[in-house]
Write a structure and sequence with these properties.
The chain has 485 residues and is of the alpha/beta class. Helix content is 39%, strand content 20%. The protein has a seven-stranded mixed sheet with strand order 14-15-16-13-12-17-18, with helices on both faces. Strands 9-8-7-10-11-19 form a six-stranded mixed sheet, with helices on both faces. It has a three-stranded antiparallel sheet with strand order 5-6-20, with no helix packed on it. The structure holds nicotinamide-adenine-dinucleotide (NAD). Residues 155-159, 164, 182, 184-185, 216-217, 220, 235-237, 240, 243-244, 258-261, 292, 389, 417, 457, 462 line the site of nicotinamide-adenine-dinucleotide (NAD).
Length: 485
């Protein structure tokens, strides 16, 4: 793949099945648009049910040999994949910017993060532990071991076109599974472009198959009802996650669900203000707010709220917005018009309910889906953005006085992905972290994502964990042998 002059030369646009790029069986294609220019970027093959069947056949065949390889052999392939992706950061970052709209720094950050899952799971592949012990009563041996769970269907969103896929592919391959991945229709190109690198790294044909499609419900549902499939791993909205959980119930598939978030940030009076400003900027503006981990509600102690609002407004206003392909741009385009309209709707609603616009607040005129960095103060508890994911560059500030009250407000949501706490009093900070009903907490940090840590949410933010030691277990079946000899 080369992207010269930001052109799409050599970027694959067909389905990837059994190690080959191939037209869809019905010949259908769909458009992928550059969100910064609204120009057509590519037309991509749209998979149908016969293509899903071909991918399942290929995956079934490939998995037999792959699962029989030693963990070390699998590990070497994964490590090579990390090296290859890491050596081509710029190319992949450009492609992500072209199809997703995010700026260069965000795109480079994503490619590094995406590649790192291959390195981490190369290291985990050789550490799948087990257990041999004596049964206390019978004296039989209890032997516990982990085996590859079976074929995995992976469904990913548009906000991280590379990383949401590699966070699933790498642990699945480490565990010995074969996969079929359905990337989001907005951003299928990056995942397709990764396939030649995986081939070069030694991933055999059929082990990883990519099925873009613009009718995901039928294609995914068909695969989830194929008896060869054993795992469904999904990242996306809670609404779609619920549908896939229902479909997974028919064959009792292992579900891994990384769903929506509504992250609260709590800035205590005793917080180091520089740390809090840096942390909130990162938690809000990484990926221009289009992240499940994005700071959605910012609760600031009333004694420091004015100073905090002034400083965060200065920082947000100083960001440069524009086509992310320009290296000087900090904030790129949102992925599509509906995301832009949703973000704008949240701002209008908050203002109607009494919020003050400190900066930003209106979409940019002209081509592209641009919404400027925006700060809202005095956001009321009944504003929609307090209850739903904003998924855009809007800091929504509320104030609090009482610790118990802010914990209650932070927990008052069906989501439970991530929360952020800023305080210099470690005793208080740890107490608050432990009271938060969230799968992850950032303490004096605006970034929790790390391939070496178990990423995931509680409540309606998901089931299971990705990354860390736990990530590979999602693709493994525990087998217990009761033995005497
Ligand atoms: P989405 O749920 O609309 O789509 C996600 C994927 O599911 C896409 O590939 C889409 O084509 C597919 N899909 C849609 N309907 C389907 C159906 N009926 N059957 C099968 N597949 C279907 O989400 P999105 O808009 O692409 O992404 C944004 C959402 O993802 C946000 O809610 C965000 O919080 C969430 N997200 C969560 C995490 C996490 O790790 N928890 C990470 C990134 C994004």
């Amino acid at each position: 793949m080369t992207i010269q002059q930001h052109s799409m030369n050599n970027v694959p646009t067909d389905l990837y099945i059994d190690g080959h790029f191939t037209e869809a069986s019905g010949g259908a294609r769909f458009d992928v648009v550059n969100p910064a220019t609204e120009e057509l970027l590519a037309t991509v093959a749209s998979a149908e049910i016969p293509d899903a069947d071909a991918a399942l056949d290929a995956a079934e065949k490939a998995m037999v040999k792959w699962a029989a390889k030693t963990p070390r052999e699998r590990s070497e392939v994964l490590r090579k994949a990390w090296e290859l992706i890491d050596s081509r950061l710029e190319e992949f970052a450009q492609l992500i910017t072209l199809e997703n709209g995010k700026g260069r720094a965000d795109a480079i950050g994503e490619v590094r993060y995406a590649a790192e899952f291959f390195r981490w799971f190369a290291e985990e592949a050789v550490r799948a532990d087990g257990l041999v012990t004596h049964a206390p009563a019978s004296g039989a041996r209890i032997i516990v071991q982990h085996k590859p769970a079976g074929l995995a269907v992976l469904v990913t969103p548009w906000n991280y076109p590379a990383a949401m896929g590699t966070r699933k592919i790498a642990p699945a391959l480490a565990a010995g599974c074969a996969v079929i991945i359905k990337p989001a229709a907005e951003t299928p190109l990056t995942m397709l472009a990764l396939m030649p690198l995986l081939e070069e790294a030694g991933v055999p044909p059929g082990l990883v198959n990519v099925l873009p499609t613009n009718h995901p419900a039928e294609v995914v549902d068909h695969m989830l009802h194929d008896p060869r499939v054993r795992v469904v791993s999904f990242t996306g909205s809670t609404a779609v996650g619920r549908k896939l959980l229902k479909a997974a119930a028919d064959q009792v598939l292992t579900p891994a669900m990384e769903l929506g978030g509504n992250a609260p940030v709590i800035v205590f009076e005793d917080a180091d203000m520089d740390t809090a400003i840096e942390g909130v900027m990162l938690a809000k503006m990484r990926n221009l707010g289009e992240a499940c981990t994005a700071a959605n509600r910012v609760y600031v102690h009333k004694n420091v709220a004015e100073a905090f609002t002034k400083r965060i407004t200065e920082r947000m206003s100083a960001l440069k917005i524009g086509n992310g392909i320009d290296p000087d741009v900090d904030v790129g385009a949102l992925v599509n018009l509906s995301t832009l309209e949703k973000v704008e709707g949240f701002v209008h609603d908050a203002v109607e309910k009494g919020a003050k616009v400190e900066c930003g607040g209106r979409r940019l005129e002209g081509k592209g889906f641009f919404f400027p960095p925006t700060v809202l103060s005095n956001v009321s508890e009944d504003a929609d953005c307090v209850h739903d994911e904003i998924f855009g560059p809007v800091v929504a500030i509320q104030t609090f006085e009482d610790q118990e009250d802010v914990i209650r407000r932070a927990n008052d949501t069906e989501y439970g992905l991530v929360a952020y706490v800023f305080s210099s009093d470690m005793r208080r900070a740890m107490h608050v972290c432990e009271r938060l009903d969230y799968g992850m907490v950032g303490l004096n940090r605006g970034l929790v994502s790390d391939p070496a840590a178990p990423f995931g949410g509680s409540k309606q933010s998901g089931l299971g964990r990705e990354g860390g030691h736990e990530g590979m277990l999602e693709f493994m079946e525990t087998q217990y042998i009761s033995a005497t000899w």
